[in-house]
Amino acid sequence: MTAVSELGDLGFRFLINIIATVILIYGLYYRRHGDRVLATTAAMFNIFAFAVLAKLSSVEFSLAAGFGLFAILALFNLRSEQIGRIEIAYFFGSIAIAVICSVGGTDILTVVVISACVLLGVYIVDHPALVRGSRAVTVTLDQIDPQLLSDSDEMRRTLSDRLGVNVTGFEIVSLNFVNELAIVSLTYNSKQRDVS
């Protein structure tokens, strides 16, 4: 392959990468979850990962794949603030698209098909109609009942009663016995609970 055709191939792969990333981050994530800062960060991370992986793919595929994996792991270890699971999934998707598009050795049609399949899968799995009525929230409780901490069913009932919703799952994020505070991340069904 000549240098001009290699640059053309790389440019076309970058175009596919940008289109797929814009659809993933702005068409799906931002419209559904609304975090502008995270959307921009994920898009920029994709562009940077593409550039590094495109350069490394000319060296050796396994090395490029290794650095792609390093980028993914760095995301989880080096982030300075807590981000939710859905945000991590979209970040991972952004990196995955960069890896799919940047690493040579795969024909363009395969890159387009794989990218389209990834986007279609995300569209379906994160579609609001699929999990209609289900919500997630983090709450701070002003009292800590030690008996509730040891009985998850009773804790779920108590949270449901206090919030007036049907709590479907919860996780205790933090306990502060000095100030009598508990931070709980929970999922609930947004329909009103039957109290009968």
From TrEMBL:
Source species, domain of life: Bacteria
InterPro entries noted in UniProt: DUF4956
Pfam family of the protein (one): DUF4956
Keyword field: Membrane, Transmembrane, Transmembrane helix
Record-annotated membrane-spanning stretches: 12-30, 37-55, 61-78, 90-123
Keyword rRNA-binding: no
Name of the protein: DUF4956 domain-containing protein
Organism, as annotated: Roseobacter denitrificans (strain ATCC 33942 / OCh 114)
